Here is the input.
Amino acid sequence: MTTSLSFLKNVIKMQNKIEKRKKSFHFRRSNAQRRSKSKRKESYPRPEIASSLKSVLAQIGKPHSAPFVPDEFQIKALEAIKKTDCLVIAPTGSGKTWIAREAILSVMEQGGRAWYASPLKALSNSKWVEFGLHFDPENVGIITGDTKENTEAPIIVGTTEILRNQLYDAMHSGEDLKFDLVVLDEAHFLGDADRGVVWEEIMIYLPARINLLLLSATIGNGEEIARWLETIRKKKCAVIREEKRPVPLYPLFLHPSGCLHPFLEGKKVSPPVADFIRRTNKKKLRSGKMPDYIGIIKILGKFNLLPAIFFLKSRAECDAALNARGTLITLQNSTEFDDSLYELLDRFPSLNNHRQLKTLRTWGMASHHGGQLPAWKMLVEEMMNRGHLRVIFATSTIAAGVNFPARTIVLFNSDLFNGNDFNPLTATEFRQMTGRAGRRGTDNIGFMLTIAGKFMDLNHIRYLMFQNPEDIFSRLKNDFAMVLNLLLSQTPEDIHQIFEKSFAAYQQNMRHSGTGFSAAKSLWRDFSRHLKFLQKEGFVDETGVLTDDGRWASKLRLDYPLLVAQCLRNKAFPEENEKMLAAVVAFFAYDREDDLKSNIKDLPPRLLASFKKVVLAVRPLIHRLEAAGFPSVKLHTSVGVAMYYWAQGHSWDSVIKAAGIAEGDMATLVLRTADNLRQIVSLKDTYPEIAACAQRAREAILREPVLFL
Here is the structure.
């Protein structure tokens, strides 16, 4: 597996290959230019600006270069983290990473070690490369589930789940975590409904001697979080806030006539916006067609407001927007563009035939959402970062954690899909989006452009302009993997004390004292319910101590550890066929409610028999789980079929087409399956044959275009 340093060296080697391919590239582009015209009628034939905007748009430009001087909040935060815990709340792009780097350097200079945790594998990979360039590659290691390099380095970058698991192991072995600083980036994930429990566990289990640096742009109740940490860690937690954006934000409104207006006048909507709201026929808006994206791009281009991020409602809208090229002028030939693109394509060769590549290189447009390959998203992000794209059509997932701002962000909707329904944008979500407007060191000013439409409430956007991020609430909850791992090193009485120290208990005591409700008691009752079930299933004895089965099952840090354990107990997993093992393990890795609409038929009899064996093994346990009040589990056969054909070596495109699944969803399934298999590999002392087969299965499914560096 290559390191970040070798990537940099390979860039030089790529140049000859790049030069050889340029001629064909320019030929294809010139042909595309001739075919780009369209007769579609545009919505904004005569774009113009309100006279009051002339002085604002005159501010557009690049700041004068000057030596870097840290801001006061950065200096304060650095001084604090050298002595104690510190929570930094500052706008996106204001320099929170600088604080982390300097704090890590200070620890290294004293012979110490630092752990940098982020919520996403892609972010961890990005930080690994960035820190490798800053600190030298030999000083930086990475641990994510897919990548494990240089693990004894003084700086480790990884995901929060890996850090939490290391804390489990340290508590079990009785050893101290051998680090002196832990950085939790995107600390607002503490309030994430699905993953916030991991963040809270880290904060509870982390030894107090290790200083904790929390970084976020959107936490409303930072002081409350700090006070809670002080009560459980018995040391001060400094809160450093910075409200000033590094690049000022100016909100705009595009009138249907094609005229750009200021969105605000003071704290009210501007008169043109107010007049539009008053005169608008909402029924007419609801029956409107797809926005004229190209017309909007032309307006932005005319007034020097590109590059831009268009935030759209769905994956399908993002992809469909790429087809609306109209009379958009193609990109001019650029040596820098060509060099960057071919450098990235040589790094990710599987993307050479990507269906959206032509649009990216011809018109400088791309879409970015969860349904795409991780490698493609990284290519798009890098091309945007290097200033080569005009527009990215994105869902809200781009707003959190990904670092590639634009001069302008464009909002078409004032609501957001939360996975189940559309709800009005929150102040936190709004800040995440607008935080992408304006590039520090590149822009003097950033812009937010609102577009009238059937899902746009302009008054709600005005309200959000002056709101602080919402408070974060505890998401601590029990699951079987957590209970098993805590019982490795803690007695039930100890775990009861952990719940008493939780953020949930602290918030309940501070906010609802005297109500008779106890968050700690609620967590304890739910823990007891899990414990009772584990005792009935033979994973825990009557005294609350793990049995032999419980000890090896605790290593299955998965969504469904008991189901996987049941298959192992019943010898339901194939021990010799890694392709079939990958297929059946995929059952427990699929995290979507809907089944695949697979076109694959005539399955091999051995595969069907393997599926049946697993289902028969876990079905009684699923019924017992449901009877005990635990969530039901659906096993989708089509998921296993798709994984089987991928493990067999079929091409990526053929599997995607046959399975009827988005590329990003299939990539996620492969990575989650590989992570499940990695947990089974850890059972080599108990189930050596299955562990060895699981390792082979991982190797069969972790290949391009899913696995990349």
The chain has three domains: 10-63+251-464, 72-241, 480-701. The radius of gyration is 27 Å. Confidence is low (pLDDT under 50) at residues 1-5, 7-40.
